[in-house]
Amino acid sequence: MMMELDILLKSVSVVRVTGDTVRNITGINMDSRLVQPGDLFVAVKGTQADGHAYIGKAVEKGAVAVVCEAWPEVQAEGVTYVQVKDSESAVGRLATVFYGDPTSKLQLIGVTGTNGKTTIATLLYNMFRVFGYKCGLCSTVCNYIDDEAVPTEHTTPDPITLNRLLGRMADEGCKYAFMEVSSHAVAQHRIAGLKFAGGIFTNLTRDHLDYHKTFENYRDAKKAFFDGLPKGAFAVTNVDDRNGMIMVQNTKAVVKTYSLRAAADFKAKVLEESFEGMCLDVNGKEVSVPFIGRFNVSNLLAVYAAAVCMGRGAEDVLVALSTLRPVNGRFETIRSKEGVTAIVDYAHTPDALVNVLSTVNEILKRRGEVITVCGAGGNRDKGKRPIMAQEAVKNSDRVIITSDNPRFEEPQEIINDMLAGLDKEEMRKVISIVDRKEAIRTACMMARPGDVVLVAGKGHEDYQEVKGVKHHFDDHEVIKEVFGI
């Protein structure tokens, strides 16, 4: 792949240039370690490091052009230097042009909100493949180019990786792409330059305040996604969430609403439910699905609404909906031979934990006990730790507090932060076991036939991150080992 620098620069606002702009660029990089000869290096002031400090390294490795915000004091001979006002925003636009403007060749649908993004994006991807289309998926669990899995590191990749991925999707004939859009991605301009055919809002609860600092900043990052949707796109929003209409108040897109409680364009209610699935009424039509929980009804309704907005017939969408299966690590049930039900779920925010536990309690109806195993991630929002413990205790009969991904923190200190939210009476229900495998094993051994063990926090993840190293760890595997299945 090759493109002239002067063509690339038409996509950004240039402050000044030194050197030749009529030269071929063979790649774009933000990481100096990945630079190849002939590349354009974009220096971005990141949260961990400032790319401007690595301009020299990039040039040493063969970068023939540099885009930056701060003008470098030393300039290498034969290298073109371009100053822009905001290089973080520019990198997405440059990558979009370099990779052939992929979102002009396929329809990109973005899903944003605190909980439900992975489920909705993945179910839409699965549904439109059922309809016979080649599709792409960008999600927390894995990226897909039709049926080819492409491993993922972040909910939304960096703009260069993202455009390269979307470019491959377009080249391989994908008509649709479905993408989780995180608040970080919006705030860090990772989606700059992309054209979205539609956007979906799920809900908004406390998360990522370690990065955004305030709930308002977090909310505004999500809202900025809808503010940027073009005329002709659709915006599907959840009016059961108090921020649902705030999200779309300044959008140019066509707004459609969905709800389980209020008047809306798309409505659903639960007719029957068990640990095997639910029977739903969706806009006056009945459909059976192998999903559990009211939060999943909301997710399925968002999928239904988006598919209809994308031009599919309502009947076809309902038939496809009935064939879909839960996403890996989202309310997955594992049954022991003795009649104990274990549930693996990614719930790692207080709201997600409440949703899952409320569903378990609604279905169980006190016919058994609920034993919850949960923790909290290290180097993330500490404020939610005591709240997680409180919600677990409030909605469970017994709770085991354990490690999640401690990252660079001490696991016991994270557990202590969680326990600090509990009073003496609440502590009677709780034990803490630092070793996650031992915690899951203990919960499963404590359970009697008819009880439910909820293992929350990691869901689809098959690792534990400790001191910067990812060690293999899978909640499913531990449960099955204890159950002997």
Automatic annotation (TrEMBL):
Needed co-factor(s): Mg(2+)
Enzyme class: ligase
Any one Gene Ontology molecular-function term assigned to this protein's record: magnesium ion binding
Cellular compartments per GO CC: cytoplasm
Location in or out of the cell: Cytoplasm
Enzyme Commission no: 6.3.2.13
Chain sites annotated for binding meso-2,6-diaminopimelate: 380, 404-407, 457, 461
Pathway: Cell wall biogenesis; peptidoglycan biosynthesis
Annotated InterPro entries: Mur-like_cat_sf, Mur_ligase_C, Mur_ligase_C_dom_sf, Mur_ligase_cen, Mur_ligase_N, MurE/MurF_N, UDP-N-AcMur-Glu-dNH2Pim_ligase
GO terms, biological process: cell division; cell wall organization; peptidoglycan biosynthetic process; regulation of cell shape
PANTHER family with a match to the protein in the record: MUR LIGASE FAMILY MEMBER, UDP-N-ACETYLMURAMOYL-L-ALANYL-D-GLUTAMATE--2,6-DIAMINOPIMELATE LIGASE MURE HOMOLOG, CHLOROPLASTIC
Function according to Swiss-Prot or TrEMBL: Catalyzes the addition of meso-diaminopimelic acid to the nucleotide precursor UDP-N-acetylmuramoyl-L-alanyl-D-glutamate (UMAG) in the biosynthesis of bacterial cell-wall peptidoglycan.
NCBIfam families given in the database record: murE (TIGR01085), PRK00139.1-2 (NF001124), PRK00139.1-4 (NF001126)
Family: Belongs to the MurCDEF family. MurE subfamily.
HAMAP family the UniProt entry points to: MurE
Protein name per Swiss-Prot or TrEMBL: UDP-N-acetylmuramoyl-L-alanyl-D-glutamate--2,6-diaminopimelate ligase
Native species: Paraprevotella clara YIT 11840
Gene: murE
